[in-house]
Asp23/Gls24 family envelope stress response protein
Amino acid sequence: MIETVVSTPAVAAVAVHAAEQVAGVRVQPGVAGLVTSVVRAARQQIKGLRPAPVEGVRVRWSGAAVVLEVDVVISGEDQAAAVSRAVQRSVRALVPELTGVEVESVFVTVVDVAC
């Protein structure tokens, strides 16, 4: 039997990609993600790696499924609730499709509104 293991950064990168497919959305780390982002970037630079962007997404494993927290900046022309639902739908659809990992929940935080 072959077992496939999907890493947390891979799931986060797919979630970033899925969220940014929604018109007017840019994934950006909130306050909680800034420290993690700086530490991760330093580690990757030391190793000479250029990984896919994962900043702005936190992944928590719940058994075989994941709980995702996505921080976004939205366009000032869009309704936050509608955009958040669209991000949830996009992430819920694309993460399992590209990784095979089940998504338990997607929490979206609007950290800024771009004018």
Notes: The chain has a mean pLDDT of 86. The chain is about 45% helix and 30% strand. Residues 80-99 form the longest helix (20 residues).
